[in-house]
Amino acid sequence: MSDPESLARTKARHAAEPGPLDDDATLHAMGYPRKLTRRFRAFDNFAISFTIINIISGIFSSFGFGMSAGGPRVLVFGWIAVSIMVLFVGAAMAEIASAYPTSGALYFSAGKLAKRHRGAWSWYTGWLNFVGQVGGTAATGYAAATFIQAFLSMQWPSYDVTAQRTVLITAVILLVQALANTYTVHLVALMNRISVWWLLIGLVVIVVVLTVEPSHHQSASFATHFVNDTGFSNAVYGGMLGLLVTSWTFTGFDGSFHMSEETVRATVNAPKGIMRAIGYSAVTGLILMLALVYAIRDYDKEAGAAAPPVQVLVDALGVGTAKLLLLIVIGAMLFCGLANMTSNTRQIFAFSRDGAMPGSHWWHSVSPRTRTPVKAVWLAAACSFVLVIPGWWSHTAFTAVVSVNVVGLFLSYAVPIFLRLRLDDFEPGPWHLGRYSKLIGRVAVTWIVISSVLFMLPHASPITATSFNYAPIALATVLLIATVWWFASARRRFKGPVSYGRPDEVAAMDLI
């Protein structure tokens, strides 16, 4: 028989445990009817962010830049340091995701957390997130096109790799990914499940081959080797630029947040999806980074190659094995781009649902056959292609698009976290940080501000028309358009996230 104290503890524990979570009731309480299908379970929600982060795609696509900007020291220890900072950002975002599990994600929560000028806070957060999402889709497609060309040149030595062909292949990739996203949510969820296993198995294969196959590896101290080939004389600045490798890899984990309206038990599974995706990516990414770094043979030759990580594979393993591993990398990049576009379209759908984009009535419409925002898919694809067009003539186009992705997304992450810090009566959801909430939020915002300034600065010297980092121009153009539009008309009609009525009223509007 239980003693009274034990019985009291048991009752208290059961009282503290949340009851069954009604996803539709939560959505209705935020003022929205259900228009999307809830097919994403905990693993699916985690899979979307894990696939977008995509350590294979991120590390391989930016490894060459890191070899010039800091070398092994920044690639290895920068990965560890930035991963920790991103965990702070992810935790602060996850707490907000638990409180506001909606496709509007960041811009919705910014509107709800602001004390004043809710419309303006929501407006700019949404546009920053939009340009960051588009940058992520564009950069991933561009990286995949680059590696596809590397594979083609290895398979057929007469193949001529050109910047123009990279842009054209990117266009084809975006077209195929848009077609895939046009079909049902069930298909997208299935593709994301496959992508997780592709990433994990591919990681194991690449690491094992790079560990076992080469006849020679670098010494343990090689991880501290520092290189600054950016053209800037200041070594600290050159090394700081190398942090872009890790920051670029860790973008897009807001995908779990954006998929909330399609996730079962979203108040718990969305925040858990964010944290698991970051944590697993941090550990597995470090393993992959070490495998690549210690496989380097001729540093100067490989750093100067058109695709440095490909040259590392060729020198360490031979052409045949390198081609097989390259197929794994290309597959990972294509999966990453697909997930990027999925997240991108959900942001467009939600932002348009509240009338915050030109032609909003188009972009928030849902296909009655597939239950997906088809028109938003094609808008995401078109905007992404526009962003990669400068790659036709600029050899720094990729790093510029990456910067647009990193800065746009992380600034949109920072706004609701900052607003939550100013709010004393924040009501957390089932997943929360307790008394550490504000401390974690302060660290997150500080890191985002520092990294955003860094990645808007020049990445190569001397600064010429072809080496210029056009990321500030791209970001400023979007913000200028958003500002002009805001003061011209939007501020009079857009007051932040729209409520479609009382919970019982919006429940009657459910389309599924």
Protein traits:
512 residues; mainly alpha; Amino acid/polyamine transporter I; two-stranded antiparallel ribbon; globular; disordered N terminus; transport; Amino_acid_permease_CS
Q: What would you say this structure looks like, in words?
A:
This protein has 512 residues and is mostly helical. It has a single domain (37-493), classed as Amino acid/polyamine transporter I (Up-down Bundle). The protein has helices spanning 4-16, 23-29, 42-53, 55-68, 71-99, 105-113, 118-155, 163-182, 185-212, 235-241, 244-249, 255-258, 266-295, 299-303, 308-317, 319-353, 360-363, 374-388, 397-422, 437-455, 471-493, 503-507; strands at 69-70, 227-228. A two-stranded antiparallel sheet has the order 1-2. Pfam families: AA_permease_2 (PF13520). InterPro entries: AA/rel_permease1, Amino_acid_permease_CS.
Number of domains: 1
Number of strands: 2
CATH hierarchy, class: Mainly Alpha
The Cα radius of gyration reads 23 Å
How are the strands ordered across the major sheet?
1-2
- Major sheet details: 2 strands, antiparallel
Q: What proportion of the residues form beta strands (DSSP E)?
A: under 5%
Number of helical elements: 22
CATH fold call = Amino acid/polyamine transporter I
The percent of residues in helical segments reads: over 70%
CATH architecture: Up-down Bundle
The CATH homologous superfamily corresponds to Amino acid/polyamine transporter I
Shape: globular
Membrane topology: Multi-pass membrane protein
Organism: Streptomyces zagrosensis
Subcellular location: Membrane
GO molecular function, one term: transmembrane transporter activity
